[in-house]
Design brief:
Helices cover 38% and strands 18% of the residues. With 79 residues, it is of the alpha+beta class.
C-alpha cells in the first residue's frame, strides 16, 4: 500500500490563501469559529487553518463562493 503525502499546515494555509486570491475572496481566520461564506461581501470566515479538518472547512466555504453565482445549485449534475 502506498502512503499518501500530506500537506503541512503552512501548505494548507497557503493553498487556501491562493484560492481566495484567485476567486476574489477575502479570508478571515478567527478563534473558535467553524466556518461561513458571505456571498454579498465575498468573504470566508473560518477557524485558523491548523489541521486537515480546518482546511476542509475552509475549502468547503470557498466552494460556496467560487461556483457560478456563488451556489452549487447552478451546476449540472450527471449520473
Amino acid at each position: 500500500m502506498t502512503k499518501r503525502a500530506s500537506m503541512s499546515p503552512e501548505e494548507m494555509r497557503a493553498h487556501v490563501r491562493d484560492l481566495c486570491v484567485e476567486h476574489g475572496i477575502s479570508l478571515h481566520e478567527r478563534d473558535n469559529w467553524l466556518g461561513c461564506a458571505d456571498c454579498v461581501l465575498r468573504r470566508v470566515i473560518c477557524h485558523h487553518i491548523t489541521c486537515e479538518a480546518s482546511y476542509a472547512i475552509a475549502l468547503h466555504e470557498i466552494g460556496h463562493l467560487s461556483t457560478p453565482l456563488g451556489t452549487a445549485r447552478s451546476l449540472a449534475y450527471t449520473r
